[in-house]
Amino acid sequence: xxxxxAATKALAVHxxxxxxxxSVLGGAFELxxxxxxxxxxxxxxxxxxxxxxxxxxxxxxxxxxxxxxxxTTAALGVGLLLGGGIGNLLDRFLRAPAPLHGGVVDWLRxxxxxxxxxxxxxxxxxxxxxxxxxxxxxxxxxRPRATAATEA
Length: 152
Hints:
This protein is 56% helix and 12% strand.
């Protein structure tokens, strides 16, 4: 996930820098380069160091959780979450203007949204869906089943 995210960001910087947004799939998406120095949904705007430190703490916490995963569904969800978090954290560490002050490269804007994202963001969103789905399936399996004797 980290490598795929880094590759798509490099391609976006190379091909989209200095260009107008590119409409794809009949306007369902726009390819548009944007640097996000704030947190999700522009939270903590103007506090790049705080956002970077929170992201670092989040990735560290997920890495610890990853060592305790016991199911395939949880492993998939935590892996996506960790990969997405590391992908965006690398931008904050390695991109201009300085370490812990860098902007995350966003390049994908859905037509139904004003926000932009990248593959790391999509991985994080998919992780939430996978983890919630896994929790729902686990809850359903652990419920006591009604038997014919208790139904009568």
